[in-house]
Amino acid sequence: MKVVILAGGRGTRISEESSLRPKPLVTIGGHPILWHIMKIYCSYGFHDFIVCCGYKGEYIKRYFVRYGLQQAAVKFSLSQLNENGQTKDITDKESTENWKVICANTGLETLTAGRILKIKKYIGEDEEFMITYGDGVADINIAKLISFHRERGKILTISTTRPEGRFGAISIDKKGNVESFKEKARRSQSYVNIGFMVANKKLFDYLGDGNEMLEREPFERLVADGQMAAYKHPGFWSPMDNIHDREYLEKLWSDGALWKIW
Known about the structure:
The protein has one domain: Alpha-Beta Complex (Spore Coat Polysaccharide Biosynthesis Protein SpsA, Chain A). 26% of the residues lie in helices and 24% in strands. It has helices spanning 15-18, 33-42, 57-71, 112-117, 142-152, 217-224, 243-255; strands spanning 2-7, 27-28, 31-32, 48-53, 74-76, 88-90, 100-105, 129-133, 136-138, 156-161, 169-172, 178-182, 192-193, 197-199, 228-232, 237-239. Strands 1, 4, 7, 8, 10, 13, 14 and 15 form an eight-stranded mixed sheet that branches. Strands 2-3 form a two-stranded antiparallel sheet. The longest helix is centred in the N-terminal third of the chain and has 15 residues, at 57-71. The radius of gyration is 21 Å and the shape is globular. 34% of the residues are buried. One of its GO terms (biological process) is O antigen biosynthetic process.
């Protein structure tokens, strides 16, 4: 099963970093958040990725071109030079990932539905595939997610969670008296879409001409047809929307990283 990662947006809310590189290449613990996401899927045996590139997409392509050399031990045989002036042999292949990666050019201004529509040609006729965002990590159980999707039999399953509250939850009576106060209560939060989606190929029929955000009209059409299920993830999830989120994730990484399930 292929994993489609939406990685083409401009990342304007983290412009301190995204002005220099695409948001999926912003690092946590010395590795791009894109790498962290791929490692989550890899830990469940999924190694086939389609990265939907857009803004500064050439940086993402360059990252994968160089990745093997950066991670592995490399031996250079200077006595047997090739036409480029040298030969090299990767001697520590176990330290590199067994990934197949397609970096698809999906356009600079393309909306999320259009990005998915543009990678249709890479998906098999009856193939299920997964979709997620290139800026969020979770300790989600991908195997349970896929089982849930197949049990429900819908076109699309999204993963949801109640995020950690950023504000206290207050209950007020009719007279204006505070009945209860819960500081950052997770149970009081609404469920939100966290990505980590599973779909069958019928999803493409709901994407229109691609000039829509996936999360708006296509989602609404799926819901209207009773073709969307929601997997409730009870564990950790965090997006990296801004520089404060990055600092938060960086601290978590140094403390052990709840999403490090590999």
